[in-house]
Design goal:
The protein contains one helix and five strands, in the order βββββα. The protein is α+β, with helices and mostly antiparallel strands. It has a five-stranded antiparallel sheet. This is DUF1292 domain-containing protein. InterPro entries: UPF0473.
């Protein structure tokens, strides 16, 4: 996880339910492993991103990772660049607000 792991995913979804998605093991900066589930994907500037939630703490903040592909394999990468992080969070928050407005 990056230093940005305290950001609220802001998606407005009720994350207090079971997920059928794959489980990802993510090690935080303290070396603690967390079981994470992917709850949302989106694209920003022709780059794919994923929002993951801690499977054992579904009310915790979501974490955004960049999805990178190499030789038909996809993997999650922490966003270390503050400029990219701020841009992606802004885009994600806009998408979440649009989705919330559409459900109202």
């Amino acid at each position: 996880m990056t230093d940005h792991n305290n950001q609220d995913c802001g998606c407005g979804h009720d994350h207090n339910h079971e997920h059928d998605e794959d489980i990802f093991l993510v090690t935080d900066t303290d070396g603690v492993e967390h079981e994470m589930v992917m709850v949302y994907t989106f694209e920003a500037d022709n780059q794919a991103y994923a929002v993951l939630l801690d499977r054992n703490a579904p009310d915790s903040d979501g974490v955004i990772f960049r999805i990178e592909e190499e030789n038909d394999d996809a993997y999650l990468v922490s966003i270390e660049d503050d400029e990219e992080w701020n841009r992606v969070v802004t885009i994600y928050n806009e998408l979440a607000m649009e989705e919330a407005d559409g459900q109202a």
